[in-house]
Amino acid sequence: MTTARSVIREVAPHLADLSADVLFGDVWERPGLSKRDRSLITVAALIALYRSDQLPGHLRRALDNGVTKDEISEIITHMAFYSGWPTAATAARLAKQVFDQG
Amino acid sequence: MTTARSVIREVAPHLADLSADVLFGDVWERPGLSKRDRSLITVAALIALYRSDQLPGHLRRALDNGVTKDEISEIITHMAFYSGWPTAATAARLAKQVFDQG
Amino acid sequence: MTTARSVIREVAPHLADLSADVLFGDVWERPGLSKRDRSLITVAALIALYRSDQLPGHLRRALDNGVTKDEISEIITHMAFYSGWPTAATAARLAKQVFDQG
Amino acid sequence: MTTARSVIREVAPHLADLSADVLFGDVWERPGLSKRDRSLITVAALIALYRSDQLPGHLRRALDNGVTKDEISEIITHMAFYSGWPTAATAARLAKQVFDQG
Amino acid sequence: MTTARSVIREVAPHLADLSADVLFGDVWERPGLSKRDRSLITVAALIALYRSDQLPGHLRRALDNGVTKDEISEIITHMAFYSGWPTAATAARLAKQVFDQG
Amino acid sequence: MTTARSVIREVAPHLADLSADVLFGDVWERPGLSKRDRSLITVAALIALYRSDQLPGHLRRALDNGVTKDEISEIITHMAFYSGWPTAATAARLAKQVFDQG
């Protein structure tokens, strides 16, 4: 259990249940989109929304789901045009941290 | 030329040039991500950012790039969890308009 | 069934199920916050996020849940300082439409 | 009195007083920034935040404060890079409406 | 005087005056909404807008104004649906820090 | 080369090329708006969008482009009304760091 998840479990246990049962137990498992596609759109949304706390974890998940580092680089470049250069710059900084970790 | 593009051409001609030469002429054509993948992330970002003016055009482009209506439905459902129910509700309304048009 | 709900049902039926079962069937019914308090925070969030499509419906729900028109006026004024004057101005416009309808 | 202001006056009269006394009566009148500079930053912020309801009025105010149409075109182009192409596209559409009116 | 307030006082003294005289001296003191209700909507807006710098201080203020930790937990869970899971996750992290401090 | 730029160069080299060639090589150099005006609108947008990672660098650039510290103070105060007090508070904190450095 990641630190972020354990914090949600401690502070808002019902939200932790909903995360486990609905978001990860149901939505992420639906066959209508592959895990790789779900990672693509999640990473894109987190970059666009400047969600710096959650992006590193979902970048790692994206790598696990088969998105390559080069594809993440392309997503960051593409997003610069749709949510602005600053969102891409922060995403690049966080991606470097994730890439450097392994 | 779509109406939106012709308006940009009229009001901000240099931006129209940059759209044609850099965004669509270069970034969208880069081989690092397929057109379908680029449509997935663009649609996801526009839903998350509540960009109601631009989402319909990119939903049509997504359909042209091979994203199915069922996949758009899954993207909307997935985004509800990452950018909130209201962003998904507006996306559903706009998707229905696009789907009903053909 | 409101129009917005029927559109979600048509375009993204699983999201409609989640709305009925989880958001309205579970979260809104939890006793930890009164319905009035839930309306206060939902209206505040929709104003702050400039969610113009969803605010009217939740203003009507707030009135049903016991929030008064004068309290909605205070929320709008308070939000001007936390999310900016433009978000308050749009909220005032939409509140007037809701108030004028009955 | 513009329609937007009269609506705020009707729905949230204290906010209307704060707008008249504090925002327009004090802040906009402070000599630390010229009216033209205040219009530049207000228009930039409204474009970046996708505040479609308030941008037209502030584009007209910017023209009154000495910002030229060509400068508005440059602001829109510049903002495309900082808040994303969609914010610039909507700004261009609204600027065309304002420019066409006079 | 909190650190945040003293910084505003140093960098933007007129804004500090407006905070003291208008926001806290007038708006927060208006009888149209209780202090508890104002804390509910302020916390909701700060969660929804991902305002990580300001949320801890307003969580402490909410506790002072009679909002319980369990109610904050419910607000965070409720907001997950209106502004997205990431905004709730960051709010949970910050709430834990505030709760652990006392 | 700043750290932020070198990170973008490493993670997303094509984005770094676009920054150098298009954003800074072309857009910032266009004569339609002075460098000072471009700094005014960039700083305003970054404050409004709560882009904490990028604001310090652009505050330094603004000082280099002839925007004074007193003018930055006025921009922050002005923005409080258009994007909300929290965006101004974070901008004040970051401006103090930049001002204290030189």
Notes on the structure:
The structure is a homohexamer of 102-residue chains. Chain A is mostly helical and 102 residues long. Chain A has 6 helices and no strands. Chain A is globular and about 35 Å long. The model of chain A has no long low-confidence stretch (mean pLDDT 96). Chains in contact: A-B, A-C, A-D, A-E, A-F, B-C, B-D, B-E, B-F, C-D, C-E, C-F, D-E, D-F, E-F. Chain C binds chain E through residues 23, 27, 30, 32-33, 37-38, 40-49, 70-71, 73-75, 77-79, 81-83, and chain E through 23, 27, 30, 32-33, 37-38, 40-49, 70-71, 73-75, 77-79, 81-83.
Sequence-ordered SSE layout with sheet pairings:
The structure is a homohexamer of 102-residue chains.
Chain A: H1 3-11, H2 13-24, H3 35-48, H4 55-64, H5 69-83, H6 85-101
Helix pairs in contact in A: 1-2, 3-4, 3-5, 4-6, 5-6
Q: Which radius of gyration of chain A do the C-alpha atoms yield?
A: 14 Å
Number of strands of chain A: 0
- Average pLDDT level of chain A: 96
> What summary fits the major beta sheet of chain A?
none
Largest interface: chains, residues each: A-B, 28 and 28 residues
Helix content of chain A: over 70%
Strand percentage of chain A: under 5%
- The sequence of SSEs of chain A as H and E is HHHHHH
By secondary-structure content and strand pairing, the structural class of chain A works out as mainly alpha
User: Residue ranges of chain A: pLDDT <50 for 5 or more in a row?
Assistant: none
